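Good morning,

Attaching, inline, the backbone tokens for the sequence recovery test we're adding to the shared suite. The designed sequence is right after.
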């Protein structure tokens, strides 16, 4: 009992010493019971009083409303839906049909028959691929009295190229050149002799010039003058020549002449 009481008294004595040193602010160096004081801490913020609401944030300034720009007015034009004009194609090609009367020219020779003269008519088909050039095929029919005084009927097929000098004018000039074949039937009977029919065949060429006036685009009046030179080619040509000179008795199967053709051409 006495030992326990002594231990408690010592403990109480020892426990009171550090409290005094701390209270007095004295702490000798090296004392084991003198700990360093902790650094002072900031006091916590005072809690807001319960029941008082936090002040509302300041109101934001009202936004300025900028009106939307008005759209530009639309201009609407009522334009009819017109198809683009097509480029007009200028046609240069032409076809034409020519109808003409024909006057034969035989010259003025002392040996020619006083009754000599032949006339007729003809038709032609003309193709004009470009304004300056045309190709024409014609059929000529003539009848009358020939150079030797015999009754004669003759037909000829002529193919010619026509060269127009001024194709854009209302009055147009042209030259022509070509080839032709012909056949003739004649009564070669002499005085008091039984009639004798003869048939001749010719190959030749022609050259000439002409003029035509455009009355309308499709209707044309005109005429030409052409001269021809030809050679007889039938099987009896050498035995029975066509021409015999009464003075020199020279023979020939070569002949020439001219044609005047006047008529109208219908183009399309």
């Amino acid at each position: 009992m006495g030992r326990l009481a002594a231990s408690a008294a010592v403990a109480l004595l020892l426990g009171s010493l550090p409290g005094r040193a701390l209270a007095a602010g004295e702490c000798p160096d090296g004392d084991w019971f003198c700990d360093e004081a902790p650094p002072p801490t900031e006091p916590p913020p005072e809690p807001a009083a319960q029941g008082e609401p936090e002040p509302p944030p300041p109101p934001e300034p009202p936004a300025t409303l900028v009106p939307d720009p008005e759209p530009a007015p639309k201009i609407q034009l009522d334009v009819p839906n017109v198809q683009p004009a097509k480029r007009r194609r200028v046609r240069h090609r032409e076809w034409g049909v020519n109808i003409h009367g024909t006057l034969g020219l035989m010259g003025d020779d002392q040996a020619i028959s006083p009754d000599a003269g032949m006339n007729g008519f003809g038709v032609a088909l003309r193709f004009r691929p470009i304004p300056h050039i045309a190709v024409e095929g014609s059929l000529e029919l003539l009848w009358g009295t020939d150079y030797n005084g015999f009754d004669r009927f003759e037909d000829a097929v002529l193919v010619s190229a026509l060269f127009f000098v001024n194709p854009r004018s209302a009055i147009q000039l042209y030259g022509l050149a070509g080839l032709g074949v012909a056949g003739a039937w004649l009564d070669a009977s002499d005085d008091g002799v039984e009639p004798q029919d003869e048939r001749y065949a010719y190959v030749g060429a022609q050259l000439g010039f002409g003029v035509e006036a455009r009355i309308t685009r499709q209707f044309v009046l005109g005429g030409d003058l052409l001269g021809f030179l030809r050679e007889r080619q039938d099987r009896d040509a050498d035995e029975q020549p066509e021409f015999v000179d009464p003075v020199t008795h020279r023979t020939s199967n070569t002949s020439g002449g001219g044609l005047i053709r006047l008529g109208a051409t219908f183009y399309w």
